[in-house]
Design brief:
Blueprint lengths: L1 H14 L2 E6 L8 H10 L7 E5 L2 H9 L4 E3 L3
Antiparallel strand pairs: 1-2, 1-3
Helix pairs in contact: 2-3
Length: 74
């Protein structure tokens, strides 16, 4: 069983991609749900950047706050 878990972790590590995002607009005036989403992403101050693993849950969180963040190239 340990071998199959090890193989799965190797595949997931090889297939993961990263996305770098930056909070560019203030969340003042947004709903509490949007502010909590930003906190979950680690974007609690304007100008803060985070490199996140691209997963379906992270993609959904980024869609919710797309009007406040931008993707950083490089």
């Amino acid at each position: 069983m340990a071998q199959s878990e090890e193989k799965n972790s190797d595949n997931s590590a090889a297939n993961t991609s990263k996305i770098r995002v930056k909070l560019v607009h203030s969340p003042i005036g947004t709903t509490a749900r949007v502010r909590e989403t930003l906190k979950g992403l680690g974007l609690n101050r304007v100008g803060r950047e985070r490199e996140l693993t691209r997963t379906p849950s992270v993609e959904g969180m980024l869609r919710r706050v797309a009007h406040l963040v931008s993707e950083v190239k490089g």
